[in-house]
Amino acid sequence: MEKIVYAQLDETVYTEVLPNGLTVTLLPKNGFHKTYGLFTTKYGSIDNTFVPLGKSEKISVPDGIAHFLEHKMFEKEDGDVFQKFGRMGAAANAFTSFTQTSYLFSSTNQVKENLGTLLDFVQEPYFTEETVNKEKGIIAQEIQMYDDEPDWRLFFGLLGNLYPKHPLHIDIAGTVESIMEITPELLYTCYKTFYHPSNMNLFVVGKLDPDDLMTFIRQNQAAKTFEEAEAIERFFPEETVTDIRPFHAISMPVNRPKSIVGIKGAEPAPQGKEAMIHKTKMDILLRLLFGPTSSNYLRLYDQGILDDSFSYDYELERSFNFVAVSSDTKDPERFSETIKAILLSAKDSPELTEKNLMLIKKRMIGQHLQSLNSLEFIANQYSQQTYGEATLFDLVPIIEAITLEDILYMADQFMHEERLSAFHILSKGEKKE
Amino acid sequence: MSIQLTEGVQLHLLPTNKYKTIQITLKFKAPLKKETITQRTMIANLLEISSKRYPTQTAFRSELSELFGASFGTAVSRKGNQHILTVSLNIVNEKYLTMGNGITEKAVQFLEEVLFHPNVEEQHFDQTTFKREKEKLRDDYDGLYDDKQTYASLALQALLFEDSSQKVPSIGTAEDLEKITSSSLYQYYQSMIQDDEVDIYVMGDVEQDEIVAYFKNFSFNARQIAPRSPFYQTTSTSELREKTEEQEVTQAKLNLGYTTSVFYHGEDYYAGQVFNGLFGGFPHSKLFMNVREKESLAYYAASSLDTFRGVMVVQTGIDGKESEKVKAIVAEQLYDMQAGDFTETAFLQTKNMLKNQLIQSEDNPGSVIERIYANQLALGKTVSLQEWIEGIEMVTREQVIEVAKKVKLKGIFFLSGGVK
């Protein structure tokens, strides 16, 4: 078990890779009452074409299957896993993103029992025709709920423009049609391929004794057998800039129109710690251009072109990276044209000064330290493993080292018109009170 | 430790070294009146973005950035018969910053500036800012229609209550907004600063004497606080109020509202928590197990209590044509609760979950402050965690059944997806 001390932050992390390939990380925070455990596989909604474990031919599986699998992990022959956690007073949940699926519990006592339940339920699949079919109605309602959410539709509208072939543009839960094709056999195939311990990590944070807990985890894992691990082969469609749809709009029953502008990054994005540095540079650039202390923000707010729903983000994950800037707005056309102009002239922006950079670095460091109050935030960030060895505790020195030249270079490299797209949601019909 | 800064203004210090931050929260409390809700929302919005010294958002947010990205925000909420305006500031503890000496004092000075020196000239709020914020709030009201879960909740609320101050959203209404001018709002601001009951909470690893000294610089005047029940008692009617609306949505929303006997730390409080947990508060609850797991009719079907108004709300997202079936299942679950038809396992599990939830909330500075403040509102004192846990443990099955029997369906709002 390796021990890493972050003296300035007053945090100590314990980590170990077990013989079966599972990466385990423990972060004791003994002032807290709770313990939060997160068990994650690098398997998300975009992983829909791959070579199954032990096979040589690639297959394509129905959209939404990773999320469907997450739902079905909770049902076992002897009942529902929620009940098992509940009897020990623990709360449990799970979530699926584009690139990962995570299972979690939080409890204030019986940590080992709850952790054992987490490991065992995720490592013992049980899928039958009956339980799979029963879930289809529930997930169909989940999909339809998101269909009515304007912000969700806005985000996926942009993804549809930027990634028309890549499975990123498909709702994480799939479609009402695609989930109907899911069978227990397909779930087992996905499970065996992606839930191998070598493709997973376990993170536990909160009230815990690292030696005792690591011994417990080692024993739990040593008692189980897994097939020989293989490197997982995933396939994504080729896309070029000509595939990007520059604009699209839809109408929904909303009073406030919405607009989003995005820029798709060039492949390949950096890996490991470099990716974290790259991401941080873009985060700073976006704050300089659009943050609450920028003159762009003030001008557009005062003109009523954006409001406090305004947001900007840089997403960087396995196989994709893009910038997205969005807001509720009375004038979607004017919003998207203005944002485009700011993005495309970013390298010449008067906002990119040493003084502004200093202020934003100060703010980012402070906000980062505030976010470390939340055990959930720490666990979720740590488990993403987007940055190889680098973790959220490495962020402060990375922020400190970034220079204005780095930001100018980023602005010059990233912002290209042919990679840019906009999507609008317009109001359908009369204004309603 | 609590100190009275002046009559009607209390400072509460909550020392802990668990966090890397210091959380400061100010609560301004006034009796709930429909006319003032919208004014209070406008004030919250104006205080959140400007002051005399920092008149633009750029200047305002730059100062917060200088305080190492201090998180600052305002919000309004309704608790029973009261309207609460909350101002909160969260900063990193100087101990974790290399160049952060003195930021705690500066942060408190910033709060003083924001509260006592708004961007005002000649007895009115700055016209340009006021105009823009009025337009923005009008947009916010329009936007309430866009999120259909929010829309359905608000529509049920309007159906459930008799008083106009309880029917409207806690952020007010477009109709009342139109009556507000920059000078009438300034007048209201002055009475708020003078008359509202104020509670200030500071949580973190701080020198208590220093904090007290900083807050003594706030020019709060003494104020008389008339004793008043914090609770709103709704009337139960024999006639069920039903409303249906059609919109072009994919998923229908069926929301049901009930009157209950469950009030915050009242006689039925602990039993009410257990009842709600069993009925629709947890994944092992009757609503989750029957509407979702057994019949596959919904992704979400849950109940929640408003213990300052004595009501319970059930929210579901369903296929529109199943509404009668879902109504029947929900009614059956309540009937089963009233008949005592719940297992001992589920009963004990609910208690465990409630205890776990409560203890976990101790790990979040914001929720600790909210809990202590709610205690203060309802009881004038803090209920210890231990007392609370014992309260849950003592609940009997019979008490849960009695609470269930007092739950009466009062209103149903159905947003159907009929048009598509």
Question: Can you offer a commentary on this structure?
Answer:
The complex is a heterodimer of chains A (433) and B (420). In chain A, helix 3 packs parallel to helix 8 and helix 9 crosses helix 15 (404-414). Chain A is built from 15 helices and 16 strands. The radius of gyration of chain A is 23 Å and the shape is globular. Helices cover 40% and strands 21% of the residues of chain A. With 433 residues, chain A is of the alpha+beta class. The longest helix of chain A has 19 residues, at 129-147. In chain A, the strands form four sheets. Chain A has a seven-stranded mixed beta sheet with strand order 1-2-3-11-4-10-9, with helices on both faces. Chain A has a five-stranded mixed beta sheet with strand order 12-16-13-15-14, sandwiched between helices. In chain A, strands 5-6 form a two-stranded antiparallel sheet. Chain A starts with a strand and ends in a 6-residue tail after the last strand. The mean pLDDT of chain B is 96. In chain B, helix 10 packs across helix 16 (397-405), helix 12 packs across helix 16 and helix 13 (344-361) packs antiparallel against helix 15 (385-394). Chain B has two domains: 2-216, Metalloenzyme, LuxS/M16 peptidase-like (Cytochrome Bc1 Complex, Chain A, domain 1), CATH 3.30.830.10; 241-416, Cytochrome Bc1 Complex, Chain A, domain 1 (2-Layer Sandwich), CATH 3.30.830. Chain B has helices spanning 34-49, 57-66, 103-116, 127-143, 148-160, 164-167, 174-178, 182-195, 208-216, 269-281, 286-294, 323-338, 344-361, 365-379, 385-394, 397-405; strands at 2-6, 9-15, 21-31, 71-79, 82-92, 120-121, 124-125, 197-204, 241-246, 252-259, 298-306, 311-318, 408-416. Chain B has 16 helices and 13 strands. In chain B, a hairpin with a 4-residue loop joins strand 11 (298-306) and strand 12 (311-318). With 420 residues, chain B is an alpha+beta fold. Chain B starts with a strand and ends with a strand. In chain B, the strands form three sheets. Chain B has a six-stranded mixed beta sheet with strand order 1-2-8-3-5-4, with helices on both faces. A five-stranded mixed beta sheet of chain B has the order 9-13-10-12-11, with helices on both faces. Chain B has a two-stranded antiparallel ribbon with strand order 6-7.
